[in-house]
């Protein structure tokens, strides 16, 4: 299966450079976590993968295909789905309508609304509730479910567990592992290390828009202080 790769990429907001020569490789059926402090460039890296931030230098590749100049909707068709930090659930649509929006837009193969409800039983209990009244955890489940209905090969998640109760975090982490087991390549942005350490195959630490460390999560598990310099508060 083809890897998703960013190669030596620079990204700017106006004149301010947010990413400096970042290289990242993501495999299907694996979890790759991006960690780093506030403002390190984690969200920018996800947005750059998804085409929401232009590449000023460098390449976006899927296998041998150069996708550097593709727009987000084209990347979505090619198998990338993105769940932003603020989830962007439609507040005036019900849970099922939020899912239907994605089903209308994509010819889904692997994933169906039923499969999403099986992954997140809580959404089934809340199927007629409006998006705007859902709890943070329920919104996150809905946002992930909606992204899965694009049938992605790669799922980009920006701090999916931020601010959620431990029991909800546990449910989301289990679901993320099941999504990985279904063959999806998951890119997970997290500010601290605990979840990345427990479930990732690969970890990449960013600091001020630069990759400071990247390698197997097992290496960080063996040497827990390895990334202290680049994360922590
Ligand atoms: P956080 O954990 O706070 O979300 P982050 O690691 O995701 O942080 P980014 O949001 O990617 O970091 O920000 C990286 C840098 O780019 C920061 O210096 C930030 O101020 C800047 N930045 C982010 N978004 C914009 C924007 N829309 N316009 C200008 N600068 C931005």
UniProtKB/TrEMBL annotation:
It comes from the Bacteria. Gene3D superfamilies: P-loop containing nucleotide triphosphate hydrolases. Keywords: Amino-acid transport, ATP-binding, Nucleotide-binding, Transport. InterPro entries: AAA+_ATPase (IPR003593), ABC_transporter-like_ATP-bd (IPR003439), ABC_transporter-like_CS (IPR017871), BCAA_Transport_ATP-bd_LivF (IPR052156), P-loop_NTPase (IPR027417). GO terms for molecular function: ATP binding. Residues 4-233 form the ABC transporter domain. SUPFAM superfamilies: P-loop containing nucleoside triphosphate hydrolases. Belongs to the ABC transporter superfamily. This is ABC transporter ATP-binding protein. It comes from Thalassovita aquimarina. The lineage of its organism: Bacteria, Pseudomonadati, Pseudomonadota, Alphaproteobacteria, Rhodobacterales.
